[in-house]
Design a protein that fits this description.
disordered N terminus, alpha/beta, D-Maltodextrin-Binding Protein, domain 2, 5-stranded mixed β-sheet
C-alpha cells in the first residue's frame, strides 16, 4: 500500500504528520521518506524517543566569567584592608604608660601609638601586660608592637627589631631628703641599699657599674621600688628621670629628691626608647617609622608630648 504524508493507516489509529511535527518533529520528517514498514517501526519507537527527550534536561550554554570592571577615569579605587596590630604597653610607668580610671591603657606612649596607628592606617588594639611578658609575648606573636619605654640596646637587638627612637630621657637617682647631698657623687652610694625595676637597663647599669659596692634590690614594678623608698626601706632608687620627676610631685614622692647628676650610658642604657617589633615583620615597622617621622616633622609629636612634659624629651 502506498504511503503518503497526509496520513498513515496503522489499523485503528491514524497518525497525522501535521500533529506529529508538533510533538515529535524528528519522527515526522522521517515518515515522509520511509516505507510503510519502516514508518510503523518509527511510530512504535516514537513514544520512547519522546520520553528520552523530555527526561533529559537541556544543558545551559557555557558562559565565560565576566572580567572585573575597569575603573573609570577619575574613579577612586577602594583602599586595601588595614593591617591589624596588637600594641602592648605595661600600664605601670606614668606618665609614659598607665591605666586610667576604667582600667584602660593611657599615657604619653598610648596617645602616641594611637596617633601613629591612625596616620599609618593600622587597625590597632592596645593592651597592657606585665613587664616581663612584653618581649616574650612579642616573640610568641601575641603582640605585634611593644610601646612600653623599651630602651634600644644591643642586647635587645639580638632578639627584636626597633623602630626609630621616639623619646630619650636620662636615668637619675632619687633619695630620701637629707640622706645624701643633691649634688653628691655616685661614690656616696657605696654600701647603700638601692632599688630598681628588674629586667631593665637600669638594673643592668647598676650591676655593671656598682657590682658589689651597693646592696641591690630589684622589684617587679617601678612603683614598688618607689613605695619602699618612701617607706624608708631603701636609700635610693634608680629610674627614668621623667617618671621620677612626675613621682616627686605627688604626695608620696614629697619625701624624696634627685641625687647627683643625670646618668647617661649608651652602652647599658641604650640609644633612647623605641617601639619593639619582631624581626620578621618589617612591613609593620616601616609603616610605624614613616608615620612617626611625619609626626615629628609636622608638629604632631610635639603636640602630644607637651600634654605630659614641660621640657623636650625627643
Amino acid at each position: 500500500m502506498q504511503v503518503g504524508c497526509r496520513g498513515l493507516d496503522l489499523g485503528r489509529r491514524i497518525a497525522d504528520p501535521a500533529r506529529m511535527s508538533q510533538t515529535f518533529p524528528s519522527a515526522a520528517a522521517l515518515l515522509c521518506r520511509l516505507t510503510r514498514g519502516a514508518a510503523v517501526a518509527v511510530m512504535v519507537l516514537a513514544p520512547a524517543l519522546a520520553v528520552a527527550q523530555t527526561s533529559t534536561p537541556a544543558q545551559p550554554p557555557r558562559t565565560r566569567p565576566t572580567p572585573p570592571a575597569k575603573p573609570k577615569p577619575g574613579q577612586k579605587l577602594a583602599p586595601p584592608p588595614a593591617l591589624k596590630a596588637t600594641v602592648v604597653t605595661e600600664g605601670k610607668y606614668p606618665p609614659f604608660n598607665m591605666l586610667d580610671a576604667q582600667g584602660k591603657p593611657a599615657g604619653f606612649e598610648v596617645d602616641l601609638a594611637t596617633a601613629i596607628c591612625q596616620r599609618a592606617k593600622l587597625d590597632c588594639k592596645i593592651v597592657a601586660a606585665s613587664w616581663n611578658d612584653i618581649i616574650p609575648g612579642l616573640l610568641d606573636k601575641r603582640y605585634d608592637i611593644a610601646v612600653a619605654s623599651l630602651q634600644i640596646t644591643s642586647e635587645r637587638r639580638r632578639h627584636i627589631a626597633f623602630s626609630r627612637r621616639y623619646y630619650t630621657a636620662p636615668a637619675a637617682f632619687v633619695t630620701a631628703r637629707g640622706v645624701l647631698p643633691a649634688d653628691g657623687a655616685p661614690a656616696l652610694l657605696r654600701g647603700k641599699t638601692v632599688g630598681v625595676q628588674s629586667a631593665t637597663t637600669f638594673a643592668d647599669y647598676l650591676e655593671r657599674t656598682f657590682r658589689k659596692s651597693i646592696r641591690l634590690r630589684q622589684f617587679a614594678t617601678p612603683e614598688a621600688a618607689r613605695h619602699e623608698l618612701a617607706a624608708g626601706k631603701l636609700d635610693a632608687v634608680l629610674g627614668d628621670k621623667v617618671a621620677l620627676w612626675k613621682w616627686l610631685a605627688t604626695p608620696e614622692g614629697g619625701c624624696c629628691a634627685f641625687f647627683g647628676q643625670d646618668v647617661k650610658d649608651a652602652r647599658t642604657l641604650g640609644e633612647g626608647v623605641g617601639a619593639g617589633f619582631r624581626k620578621d615583620d618589617p612591613k609593620l615597622r616601616e609603616a610605624f617609622n614613616k608615620a612617626l617621622a611625619e609626626m615629628i616633622a609636622d608638629g604632631g609629636y610635639k603636640k602630644i608630648a607637651d600634654k605630659y612634659f614641660p621640657f623636650p624629651i625627643y
